[in-house]
Specification:
Blueprint lengths: L14 E9 L4 E4 L5 E9 L2 E4 L4 E4 L3 E8 H10 L5 E14 L5 E14 L17 H13 L3
Parallel strand pairs: 6-8
Antiparallel strand pairs: 1-3, 1-7, 2-3, 3-6, 4-5, 7-8
């Protein structure tokens, strides 16, 4: 949600949107002049359709959705998400108007994030299946250290 000090008047017909896609870069945490944490990210979402004629999946046009998170969510995103992560993001679609350097009226959209998380639908059943089991000797060594410790 946009902080009160920079929030525009809320309308009853707000557009809620869910975007599933990939982060195009690492999130970069910044602070406003008043000290609020903010992170801006871009999510790339490409729809795919199955072409029965060729029996292949065909990618559609990619949507690049800018998204903004504030305060604690901004800090969490910056510390836990990375370029290429598949995410599911939910928020309010915000339209912002401005004048470009030539004085032309422009409008851009962004997602004001209410929730975001990693999409775990493509994670292997056991992501640690290739990790070697730790030898029991390591645990015995750690127990010995604990016994010898004066604390």
């Amino acid at each position: 949600m946009i902080p009160k000090d920079i929030r525009k008047k809320s309308m009853s017909n707000e557009t809620n949107l869910t975007v599933v896609g990939y982060l195009t870069s690492d999130p970069e945490l910044k602070n406003t002049s008043s000290g609020l944490a903010v992170v801006n990210i871009t999510i790339a979402s490409t729809p795919s359709k199955f072409d029965k004629n060729t029996s292949t999946w065909v990618d559609g046009q990619t949507l690049f959705m800018r998204a903004t998170a504030w305060r604690n969510m901004a800090e969490q995103i910056a510390s836990s998400m990375h370029k290429g992560d598949k995410v599911i993001a939910l928020g309010k679609l915000i339209a912002e108007s401005y004048k470009d350097k030539d004085g032309n009226d422009r409008t851009t959209t962004r997602l004001d994030l209410e929730s975001i998380g990693l999409d775990l639908s493509r994670v292997p059943k056991n992501p640690y299946s290739n990790v070697e089991k730790v030898s029991d000797d390591v645990y015995e060594f750690a127990d010995k250290l604990d016994e010898d410790s004066p604390f």
